Amino acid sequence: MWAQYWGGTRQLWVDAGAARALRRRVRESMASGGVAADGSVALSRRETRFVRRVADDVRALVPFLAFFMLPFSAYALPVIVRFFPGFLPSTYHSSSYRVAQMQKRQKVKVEAARQLRDALSERLLATEGPSARERDLLLDFIHRAAAGEAIPLTQLRPLDRYFATHLKLLDLEPRRSSGASLGSWLGSTLWLCPAELRALCTFYGLSALPLPTFDHCANQLILHASRIQHDDKLLVQEGDRWPTELTDEELLEACDERGLPTDVTERDRLVAQINQWLAFRRPPPPVSAELTLFAPALATNTRAK
């Protein structure tokens, strides 16, 4: 075990040096009008994600070292890692371990999607208003997906305006400070309750507090949606190269981040899932953050296999 941690620390040191070199290349590129001294251009998707991963690992290393200095922490560390795998930097885990964790997380996503779907259906059935037609279309989509029907995400695009208006994740503070009671604006906007927001956080593997607040869950989801949108742009910029350049682990990671099924091992199916996702997200007009987050959860097949 200690050899694994020592090897992970050395790998993190090497990765940190490589990330510094990439950031220096970006600074040179900006200073020279877009092209660095060696003729390179902006970072590729893999390089961008590498720099972000190293930054996350360095942030995770600080609390890990602080915990490691506590008495008897070596005996408690395996228990902490079992329940909080993100406690350690990613270099402390092997590639096969990360793949196995993403594939195992599919069961968690299915349960979270079922809870979210059931709660949202009850809320929609109790709601009347000028958007009744869109509400009925959304309920029909939920019922068909719950029955095990494989429905393309593109069928939800006509409901984008409904999601952005009635299931909005933004502008929480103005509503809260307006003086209206919680129930009055919940009924008019269908703002999700903390349990439903936490289900979305669980679906995407985001950190959630034991007693989640609107702000915590909404901010986590908004940040995740922003990262997905940015990563989609990088994939599109890669053009036709990404299906062959991405490794199996990178394909699985891309599916997991977007809430797509990760219990598949065939490379062709993983590529097809991402292609369908890009077709769903392709503008015009751009898909809202709300639909970006809700669509994979609502389309998840929750029937037992």
Average the pLDDT over all residues and give the rounded result: 78
Give the DSSP E fraction (strand runs of 2 or more residues): under 5%
Low-confidence stretches: 36-40, 171-190
Q: Biggest sheet, in brief?
A: none
Shape: globular
Number of continuous helical runs:
14
Number of strands: 0
- The tally of structural domains comes to 2
What structural class is derived from the secondary structure elements?
mainly alpha
Report helical residue fraction.
55-70%
Order of helices and strands: HHHHHHHHHHHHHH
Distance from N terminus to C terminus (CA atoms, Å) equals 36 Å
Cα gyration radius (Å): 21 Å
GO molecular function, one term: ribosome binding
Membrane topology: Single-pass membrane protein
GO cellular component, one term: mitochondrial inner membrane
Transmembrane segments: 60-84
What does this structure look like?
This protein is an all-alpha fold and 305 residues long. It has two domains: 1-92; 97-170 and 190-304, no CATH class. The chain is 68% helix and 0% strand. The chain contains 14 helices and no strands. The protein has helices spanning 2-31, 45-68, 73-83, 95-125, 132-146, 160-166, 172-176, 182-189, 194-203, 214-238, 242-245, 248-257, 267-281, 289-299. Residues 36-40 and 171-190 have low confidence and may be disordered. One of its GO terms (biological process) is intracellular monoatomic cation homeostasis. The chain crosses the membrane at residues 60-84. It is a single-pass membrane protein. One of its GO terms (cellular component) is mitochondrial inner membrane. InterPro entries: LETM1-like_RBD, LETM1/MDM38-like.
